[in-house]
Amino acid sequence: MSPGPWERCFWLGGLLCLSVGSSGHAPPTPQPKCTDFQNASLLWGTKLKVQFLLFVPSDPSCGHLVEESSDIQNSGFNATLGTKLIIHGFRALGTKPSWIDAFIQALLHAADSNVIAVDWVYGSTAVYFSAVDNVVKLSLQISRFLRKLLVLGVPESSIHIIGVSLGAHVGGMVGHFYKGQLGRIT
Predict the structure, then answer these.
(1) What is the mean pLDDT of the chain?
(2) Where exactly are the structural domains of the chain?
(3) What is 51-185's CATH superfamily?
(4) What is d(CA 135, CA 50) in angstroms, rounded to the nearest whole number?
(5) What's the pTM value of the predicted model, to 2 decimals?
(6) Band of residue 9 on the pLDDT scale cut at 50, 70, 90
């Protein structure tokens, strides 16, 4: 939307035009912000700092940060679809896994589902034994997040956890916490 003759736009971060003036038009509605994986430093990579990034079929290239139940409900999450959680492993250099974007796209292309990438780059960086020490903490955080999904009506049987490397250990522990009632762990 371009400004009318009596209004001006003030751009915030290049994303949102706030209109000032009287043209009879309402300011544009802000679109949900896309979030990407964090980057950690080898020296600072011992804190967990978990992010849950939701990717949905209607917006497959935009990760929506979902922390609270209200975030989940307002993000395009569909409780009637299957839900896949991807958990990466150890990140020696503190960067986003190079394979994750293509994997998310492949999952969304294969079936209508909610795909949630678990970003724990901070907790998986630095020395390997520090990342291993974070496995139980991460498993508990994922279990708490899954409880929020269950409250929203997601059946346990529709949850598919996909763990890679150390993330597979995390996935197994989450499955243990749910007494084997989750749909699938890969």
Answers:
(1) 85
(2) 1-31, 51-185
(3) Alpha/Beta hydrolase fold, catalytic domain (3.40.50.1820)
(4) 12
(5) 0.81
(6) very low
